Amino acid sequence: MRTRPLPAPQARRIPVAIPRGAVGWFPLAATGILLVGFPALAEAVGWRFYLNLVTKAMILGLACSGLNLVLGYGGLVSFGHATYFGLGAYTAAVLAREGIRTAWVIWPAGILVAALAALVIGAVCLRTRGLSFIMITLAFAQMVYYGVISFKQYGGQDGLRAPRTDLGFHMGDVALYYLTLLLLTVCLGILWRVVHARFGRALQAIRDNEARAAAIGFPAYPFQLVAFVLSGALTGLAGILMAHHAQYVSPAMLSWPQSGAFLLMVILGGVGNFWGGVVGAAAMVALEEIFHAATIHWQLPVGLILLGVVLLAPRGLVGLLEGRPR
Amino acid sequence: MPGFPAALVLEQLLNGLQLGLMLFLLASGLTLVLGIMDVVNLAHGSLYMLGAYFAATLAHGTGSFWAGVALAVLATAGIGILLEVSVLRRVYTRDHLTQVLATFALILVFNEGVRMIWGPQALLLTVPQELARPVRLLPGLGYSAYRLFLIGVGIGLAAGLFLLIHRTRLGMWVRAGASNRAMAQAMGVPIRRVFTLVFGVSAGLCAVAGALLGPILAVQVGMGEEILILAFVVIVIGGIGSVKGALVGALLVGIVDTAGRALLPPLFMHLLPPEVASNLGPAVASILIYLLMAAVLFLRPQGLFPVRA
Question: Are A135 and B101 an interchain contact pair (Cβ–Cβ within 8 Å)?
């Protein structure tokens, strides 16, 4: 792994390099215009179904971008991100069940619960490295999973209905679409600033060489913990959105296959590439949908395509789009 | 402290031992593949599933449970070798995350393939006639002869594996590969052939576990993923690359999980108000092994029997 030279710790400004994942303004603007205009188009052609599908892809893209912060930029393979996703979703559903309908309470509460869980779990897990880290994040995720399904009054194994919250306007499918698009844009903006700020550079330096980074004044633990909490909070926000999207939460959202699915989407898109999470999530949703419509045995072609991506596109889909290695 | 009948405790310990030994059959292969080849193989559980499906079909076809199991083990080992040569060999030098994606893709392919060939319903594999009746271990304690047989097979295979690893040249190569692959290669260990062989053997062991557990658990798509997670817990507790660690870890996980599920809920019922206990008991019993793993990792990040210095 190549290490980048780091500025001296007292340096205020960090030399500008071309950030990984920088795309031209044109594809970005085109995607943006397409996404903003999509509901009108969908309405005109009667594609209500695809509207919801794009909402789902954006929600998963947000969760995966959150995961990519620790996975790609921090080098930390968290096999428990379903925990934050599910806790965000469950917080929304449980508060709604308890009679609290206003979004101004539910949304911050969901993010807070997810962030607190990430703080506690991260504080313990970040003392380990490598495969131990993977497995200990899994262990905590399983504990939360079994903990949540033991609450029979909140559905247990069966899950819980989650009515959409009141944000001062009617939350229809189109409103939720635009809300998701807005939140995704804001969060990606925050992430962009974070990974290109001093903090993000330090995080990547720690990923590339922990001892060297520590020697020049960037100790791993606090940086990684902050990244972990931010990542958990973003994934928790995605969970709240998912609860609104499906109007239902289930223990499956907290389960390890869900954690695995997030990892796969990021790997598919491109680990450590800024757009890896969004592209991976969109690609996975699209792949599943295309083959699901075509055959009941959709997993077979999806599996073969994933295998093809691994063998032919070592840097994920975004890497494939960007062209030859620099 | 409620008095548990000694017979119940003994029965649960035996069940735990049986589960642990079957887990060992999976975990030993997984730990070697990860320890020596440095490959995270999620498709390990799929080989276990294939073993069970082959055994169910072949036992039905040949009319003999034993012939079915034997053929299933050979067939699965063959598929394992094929898999190593065709796919895994290409991802040895890639990072773990790429291997995760590749072997997850294999899980999808295997699951869907099995569903296409055998259909979505679970298959039936019955306990062979000669082991169908319970054995009287103690006065008042009858125990399934089939489960006793599983314990016997598990102990036998574990002993065989130890002899293979500690007393043969192949075993020496395997141990050398696990502790320092580059050095072993430099000293003339034919590491490619060792890899292929280890993968074949570990696939065969998966098939033994799958085929023998078939009559107890359901033979269905998805059976591999459930046990895969347990096998990973085992090897992380034991220390990656260590077969001894896999054995100790498997027995710990098997006994803690089985005993916890059987004994904790009644214990909680005794100590706590019933409405709390009925929720808490099963939840705590389910997370016991994960607590165990988290504790081991926290205190000894390399596992109980670290291989690399």
Answer: no
> Which among B39, B178, B26 is positioned nearest to B97, based on CA atoms?
B39
Reference B220, options B46, B44, B24, B61; nearest CA is B46
Beta bridge partners of A280: none
- Give the amino acid at B123: L
**Are A264 and B104 a contacting pair at CB < 8 A?**
yes
> Could you count the other beta carbons within 10 Å of the beta carbon of residue B135?
14
Across the interface, whether the CB atoms of B282 and A150 are under 8 A apart is answered yes
A249: three-class secondary structure by DSSP: strand
What part of B 113-152 touches A (C-beta under 8 Å)? 113, 115-116
Residues in a beta bridge with A249: A160
Cβ-defined contact of B287 to A142 (cutoff 8 Å): yes
**Residue B122, token pair as written in the block:** 């679970």
Contact residues on chain B for A300, CB-CB shorter than 8 A: 108-109, 112-113, 116
pLDDT digit of tens for each residue in chain B (309 aa)? 456 677 788 888 999 999 999 999 999 999 988 887 888 888 999 999 999 999 999 999 998 999 999 999 999 999 999 999 988 888 888 888 888 888 888 998 999 999 999 998 888 888 888 888 888 877 777 888 999 999 999 999 999 999 998 899 988 888 888 778 888 888 888 888 888 999 999 999 999 999 999 998 889 998 888 899 899 999 989 988 888 999 999 999 999 999 888 888 888 888 888 777 777 788 888 889 999 988 888 888 888 988 764
Note whether A264 contacts B98, CB cutoff 8 Å. no
Residue A278: C-alpha distances to residues A29, A68, A89, A129, A285 (Å): 15, 10, 20, 27, 11
What b/e string do you get for B33-67 counting C-beta neighbours within 10 Å, with b at 16 or more?
Answer: bbbbbbbbbbbbbbbbbbbbbbbbbbbeeeeebee
- Alpha-carbon gap, residue B95 to B241, rounded angstroms: 18
R_g of chain A computed on alpha carbons: 20
pTM > 0.90: yes or no: no
Q: Considering only CB atoms, which chain B residues are within 8 Å of A302? A: 108
Paired tokens of B179: 């502790």
Please, are residues A303 and A102 in contact by the beta-carbon 8 Å criterion?
Answer: no
Out of B106, B287, B291, whose CB is closest to A303? B106
Q: Tell me whether B107 touches chain A (CB under 8 Å).
A: yes
Test mutation, B98, B235, B240, B288, chain A, max A CBs within 10 A: B98
ipTM: 0.80
If you count them, how many residues does chain B have? Answer: 309
Domains identified in chain B and CATH numbers? 17-127+144-299 (1.10.3470)
Task: Establish how many alpha carbons lie within 13 A of residue B209's alpha carbon, considering only the half-sphere containing its beta carbon.
Answer: 32
Whole-angstrom Cα distance, residue A84 to residue B166? 45
Among A257, A297, A309, beta carbon nearest to B116 = A297
In sign, the C-alpha dihedral spanning A309, A315, A320, A321 is positive
Non-local (6+) Cβ contacts of A289 within 8 A are A53
From CA A99, how far away is CA A216, in angstroms rounded? 52
Residue in A closest to B283 by C-alpha: A146
CB distance B91–A310 less than 8 Å? yes
Q: Which residues does chain A have within 8 Å of residue B240's beta carbon, measured at their own beta carbons?
A: 131
Cα Rg, chain B, nearest whole Å: 20
Read off the amino acid at residue B172: M
Contact A303 B107 (CB under 8 A): yes
Partner residue facing B229 (CB), from A127, A128, A256: A256
